[in-house]
Amino acid sequence: MELPGNMMEMWYSEYYTDNVKLDLRIVKQLFSGVSDCQRIDICQSVEFGKFMALDGEILFSEKDEFIYDEMVTHVPMAVNPDIKKVLIIGGGDGGVATELIKYEGIEQIDVVEPDEMLVEVCQEHFPELSSGLEDPRVNIYYQDGLRFLRNKVGEYDLIINDATDPFGHTEGLFTKEFYGSCYTALTEDGIMVYQHGSPFYEEDRIECMKMHRKACRAFPVSRVYQAHIPTCSSGYWLFGFASRKYHPLEDLKARDWKKKKIKTKYYTTNLHKGSFMLPKYVEDMLEEEEERNGR
Questions:
Q1: N or C: which end of the chain has fewer CB within 10 A?
Q2: pTM for the whole thing?
């Protein structure tokens, strides 16, 4: 099939399962390279603007990245507005750091990203998204996240696991040891937030259950919340909220958060409450794991 001007039509395909895929019409490929960790591709699409894919899976696009970054940042910050020291595991694209620097009270943001090429490519092709990495409060460490955590005790008020998925070079960030190390690295009132994946397709659902099992075993408070992100698998994405003592709803400080006048495009404190109200099939999946752990 040809477009006007004899330009060949180009599409980028991401397979969710053997039988389901997402197709995006693209204008051109802007970058393709293989780092020590993964293959990185950047394309210009018609509908979603520029997007980045890692090993064939779309990480984010210009059109919908704000949803993910806001939901992993503002949910914990609205529960504990006094967070001072933050650790981001992964986060080399800079999106989460760029949201976090909106909070004047945060004093230190450590970004632990194993892939230096990813950071460099994002700074070149997504300068606005990665601008937060230039903030003086941000420190970037190019190393494995689990190794970085092993000697940390009571250092962080918030840990955000922004790693991509439980396979390949990030597999160690989804283990029982990792969740335990996060618990140890947090302060007494610390919070951990992590991407929980999509529960819709069977393979993804199994990984969601495993993550909830490990979080429940490591933390006294463990809840799951949701968001609609079009370029994520099935367009439906879950996040985990784990804490030593804070409950994401009972301890929500909506009035205090609103006083900060943080500019957002997706997150609101009303949405915060609603995001923890999950579909029945997801509730059943999570409760099954909780029963196994005697919760």
A1: N
A2: 0.93
